[in-house]
Design goal:
Helix content: 40-55%
Number of helices: 9
Distance between the termini: 68 Å
Shape: globular
Radius of gyration: 21 Å
Number of strands: 6
Order of helices and strands: HEHEHEHHEHEEHHH
Strand content: 5-15%
Strand order of the largest sheet: 3-2-1-4-6-5
Largest sheet: 6 strands, mixed
Oligomer: single chain
C-alpha cells in the first residue's frame, strides 16, 4: 500500500515516501494504533467515529492511521472527520476543507466563535486552555450526537499522556492522566485516544514526510502551556540522558500495582495480615 502507483491505495497516502525508513515508521504507527484500539476495547462493529482534526501533526497522523486500518478491513467502523473552527484570528479556514475534499475523506466543518468567549472571560496572563478545551469539547459532543456518532476520537499521543501524568503529579497532587478510553458524564458517548501508544516524535516525522498542511494553534502558551512545556523539557532531558526512558515510564502506567501504592480505596490494606494470625487477638 506504500506504492503510489498502485490502484489499491487511499488518496491520503498518495506521494508517501518509498524509503525503507519511512515504511518502518508507518508500520510502527499502524501497529501501535491497532495495539491501543485492541488493548482498550475501543471498537464496536458498525459504530461511527467523529475523528477530530485540528490541522496539527497529531490529528493528521490519527486520521491517516485510522483510515489505513479501515482500508485494510481491520477497523469495522465509519469515519467522519471533523474540524471545529473556533474563530481564531488568521485561522486558514479553507486549508482543511480543501485537504479533506482532495483526500476523499467524509467530513464536517463547524464554525463556532469560542475564541471571543475565551478572550472575554479569561483575565490577561491566565491560562486559556481549560475554558477553551471545555467549550471545544461541548461543541464536539453536540456534533457527534447530531451525526449519530458513538465516539469522539482525539489525537493525544503517548507523550501527551506522560506529560499529563506529571502535570497531575506535580501540580494536582494525584496519580492520573488522560485515559485511552472513557465514557462522557452523560453516558452516551465514548472519548477515544487511539494514538495512546504512539510517540510524538513518530507523529512529527510522519506528518512532515507526508507534507500535510500543518496549522499551528496560536491561542495557547500561557500559564498551563508553560507548565506543560516545563514538563516536556524535563522529559526531553531525561530521555537524552537515558534513551528509552519515556517508553519505560509509559510501560509503568500500564503496569500499576495498587498493593504497592497508598490508596486504600484501590487496595484493602486493612484486611492484610500474616497467615495464622488469630483475629480474636486484634
Amino acid at each position: 500500500m506504500l506504492d503510489s502507483d498502485s490502484d489499491d491505495i487511499h488518496p491520503l497516502f498518495y506521494g508517501a515516501p518509498s524509503k525503507t525508513e519511512f515504511k518502518k515508521l508507518r508500520k510502527r504507527i499502524i501497529r501501535d494504533t491497532r495495539e491501543a484500539i485492541d488493548r482498550y476495547g475501543m471498537v464496536r462493529k458498525g459504530d461511527r467515529w467523529l475523528v477530530c482534526l485540528s490541522g496539527g501533526k497529531d490529528s493528521y497522523t490519527l486520521l491517516a492511521a485510522l483510515t489505513e486500518l479501515q482500508w485494510r478491513g481491520l477497523l469495522p467502523i465509519d469515519i467522519l472527520a471533523c474540524n471545529l473552527d473556533q474563530g481564531q484570528p488568521g485561522f486558514p479556514a479553507t486549508v482543511l476543507p480543501d485537504f479533506l475534499e482532495r483526500m476523499s475523506v467524509p467530513h464536517r466543518i463547524e464554525y463556532q466563535d469560542t475564541y471571543s468567549i475565551v478572550m472575554d472571560k479569561v483575565p490577561a496572563g491566565r491560562t486559556y486552555c481549560a475554558l477553551c478545551s471545555r467549550l471545544r469539547r461541548g461543541n464536539l459532543y453536540r456534533i457527534a450526537r447530531e451525526e449519530g456518532c458513538a465516539a469522539v476520537v482525539l489525537g493525544h499521543h503517548r507523550d501527551d499522556i506522560l506529560e499529563t501524568f506529571f502535570l497531575n503529579l506535580f501540580h494536582g497532587g494525584k496519580l492520573a492522566t488522560m485515559p485511552p478510553k472513557l465514557v462522557n458524564d452523560e453516558g452516551d458517548l465514548m472519548v477515544l485516544r487511539p494514538l495512546a501508544h504512539v510517540a510524538e516524535a513518530d507523529c512529527e516525522r510522519f506528518a512532515q514526510a507526508m507534507n500535510y498542511p500543518i496549522i499551528p494553534c496560536d491561542l495557547c502558551g500561557s500559564q498551563d502551556g508553560l507548565q506543560r512545556q516545563q514538563i516536556k523539557g524535563m522529559l526531553d532531558e531525561w530521555e537524552a540522558r537515558s534513551p528509552g526512558r519515556r517508553g519505560k515510564m509509559f510501560s509503568a502506567l500500564m503496569s500499576a500495582r495498587p498493593s504497592h501504592l497508598l490508596d486504600p480505596a484501590l487496595f484493602d490494606f486493612a484486611r492484610i495480615f500474616p497467615k495464622g494470625l488469630d483475629d480474636s487477638a486484634l
